[in-house]
Amino acid sequence: xxxxxxxxxxxxxxxxxxxxxxxxxxxxxxxxxxxxxxxxxxxxxxxxxxxxxxxxxxxxxxxxxxxxxxxxxxxxxxxxxxxxxxxxxxxxxxxxxxxxxxxxxxxxxxxxxxxxxxxxxxxxxxxxxxxxxxxxxxxxxxxxxxxxxxxxxxxxxxxxxxxxxxxxxxxxxxxxxxxxxxxxxxxxxxxxxxxxxxxxxxxxxxxxxxxxxxxxxxxxxxxxxxxxxxxxxxxxxxxxxxxxxxxxxxxxxxxxxxxxxxxxxxxxxxxxxxxxxxxxxxxxxxxxxxxxxxxxxxxxxxxxxxxxxxxxxxxxxxxxxxxxxxxxxxxxxxxxxxxxxxxxxxxxxxxxxxxxxxxxxxxxxxxxxxxxxxxxxxxxxxxxxxxxxxxxxxxxxxxxxxxxxxxxxxxxxxxxxxxxxxxxxxxxxxxxxxxxxxxxxxxxxxxxxxxxxxxxxxxxxxxxxxxxxxxxxxxxxxxxxxxxxxxxxxxxxx
Length: 494
Hints:
Oligomer: single chain
Strand content: under 5%
Number of strands: 0
Structural class: mainly alpha
Helix content: 55-70%
Number of helices: 37
Radius of gyration: 36 Å
Shape: elongated
């Protein structure tokens, strides 16, 4: 049967399809490209135009017109009365792979009974989904998705199921069916949704290639769902090969799940990974920490990845240190973690002593002051490190202590042959009683290269504190270096 152009034009007018052609030339081009069989199928349409519920442009879709059962497929599409908000996705019903699918009519039958088609239409023409051995079962789960968590976020559950149902890695893993079932059981509370980053949720774990090869995958899915408040820390450990294949993999996961607070978990995460969080992750977590009135210095202490910081697993006492971090108060834990991760502090054999000193304190101001010295690499590299800390710890005046901290971390002063003399000299003063002119002179003499090398330095210091002598300091019984080191230092003071 040859094409009857007049009838075709009339049919196009009947279904108000002229608007789908940019101009008369495009219409003419379409008519000439239309095969006789396709023209015959189009002309056989008898459904009243007013009864067509889907976008009418699909009536002349090339793929649909090529189907021998064109009319039957049009009728099947027209039974989908629930396309509000998703009519634009109906074109996927005309994709060749779906039209050729053995499940076409059974899928269409399922679609017509659902109230929300959006997420099913997302995947309906995906090759992996079409060829999936779980195709029918998964489609039913997507269409019937309910948020059992009571948050009324059915769409989030449906979205997660849809993404997993078409994921090749999931389909090829032994966990696909269990993961799909688990998503329906937990509801939306530990789901993230598509196109949201950084990845940290149960639905993304079900898509992760490394996790899907992990024998602990199902266990991790449950752990992540039950500990979703620390998902930013758990997820990287569950998805990166270096941790999955690590010696302490399960101990690290367990340490995080046992964390007494989010800050404990953050510190443990830092210690395990030797990394920091992204800006987005920190903002999300810090907002909640502020709501819980966690101390300012603890929340905003920025853990920077230093050149000599290291993963905790390099420390012989790694597992002990994980337990230690979990035992600490929120306001201290990030600072102790910073010291535990400092490889230079560990190699200099100061780490254990410094941390013990901090944990023995009951004065927060002194804690943070000493931490400043303990985390300073000028001080750590110095033979005076422990001596300076002891001296600062025994100094009650805040402003005097601040001056001592400046000197204990000042490379010029640490390199000076007079450093220990200088520290004891300042410790003998009460900076609260000094005038600004004297304070300025002391800062010049102790903290600047010119002042440290000043030939009249000692005479100027004697004018300020004429009664000071190292002999008096020794008699006070302050902790001094071991004898050999002390003798070496004393030679400079003669």
